Amino acid sequence: MADKSIREARTPDTVRSAAPEEGVAEKALSRDGISRRKLLGTAGATGLVLGAAGGAVGYAAAPSEATPLSSLGSNRVMFHVKHQPGITEGLQARGHLVAFDLTAGTGRKEAAALLRRWSATAERLMAGEAPAHDDTDVARDAGPSSLTLTFGFGHSFFSRTGLEKQRPVSLDPLPDFSSDHLDKSRSDGDLWVQIGADDALVAFHALRAIQKDAGSAARIRWQMNGFNRTPGATAHPMTARNLMGQLDGTRNPKPAEPDYDKRIFVPSSGSHDPAWMANGSYAVVRRIRMLLDDWEKLSLKAQENVIGRRKSDGAPLSGGTETTAMDLEKTDAKGNYVIPGNAHARISRPDQNGGAAILRRPFSYHDGFDSGGVPDAGLLFVCWQADPLLGFVTIQRKLDRGDALSRYIRHEASGLFAVPGGAAQGEYVGQRLLEG
Length: 436
Prior knowledge:
Layout: H1 3-8, H2 36-43, E1 46-50, E2 56-60, E3 94-102, H3 108-126, E4 148-153, H4 155-160, E5 191-197, H5 200-214, E6 218-227, H6 260-264, E7 281-290, H7 292-295, H8 300-307, H9 344-347, E8 359-360, E9 363-369, E10 375-385, H10 389-400, E11 409-419, H11 431-434
Antiparallel strand pairs: 1-2, 3-5, 3-6, 4-5, 7-10, 7-11, 8-10, 9-10
Helix pairs in contact: 3-5
């Protein structure tokens, strides 16, 4: 299947059903020469496929080595693409975010070798193949499961590798915000890797492979685990919900919009960014704890007023459906705004922020409970934009001045990373920076 058709099959908020590239099913993936797909076909006579409406439909098949993998596990995302994978694809069921710091003595040459190893491993894993060396066999029975690996560079990477002159101005540290309660040990980092998949074992397998590939060149600075609803779990494709029960991502920029690329990706020319960032993007990563005990004490009406949308279907309080434009001037019988002046959806709208927009692609997280039984849960917020100052910073400054939601959340970790464009065939991610 061509790159274009696979990426079209994985647009946000739709059920993915792309078939694996022709020939991938026949590749030998294990040491004994049995492919993962053949192994799955012989090991299980029953499985699930997605129906046209996005529901689960059972089927039975006689065990046979010729039986192909026929499930979400067969979905494949291509590695060699214009923009790195993991940005425009739909939300994935499982995610890992991990930052690394280069070790003492690791410079530009060693960093290049590391990115070369990581890129080779990412290409193999995303194709449903085992890593070249020391496979853990965690995902031995699975297909690619829409696996994506995305690589970025932090502000400190450039001084550690003597590449300060190539550091983008857009990578300047984020300003402080009043809602910040940041743990520095879980923020920033020289290198950042985002892993996503529709199977938890496939995602963990990739995380372990990337860690092993780091070798002595880099050590883990922090790592976070997230999740989303599994594709096909709802009766029809829909916007995901966060742990507050709200639809999250309704106003994401859409590829059909004429300024979509301009908002999300660094252009190939005419930019203040260095040439190696062409077709890349900037990822803002925030660990946002939701104060769920406080939130859940609110009545449904109070929760909806905080957000500015109905909880049931995401429609604006001014009426209509989820995609209906908000009527910010609509008032009730008492003359009050139907959508309160400090509602999150009102304040964060692009037309309330000089057109600023970000592509949200988050994961939820739950890291247990504290000694008082309070859940440590919330959002691993990841957003993408061509310029963080014109995207996240502009919106967050506005939210910082009076967002009703701010009393129910706490930003506990933060990072900003330059994510270069996708690696061309025969290249590794970041090659134009490290060898330019």
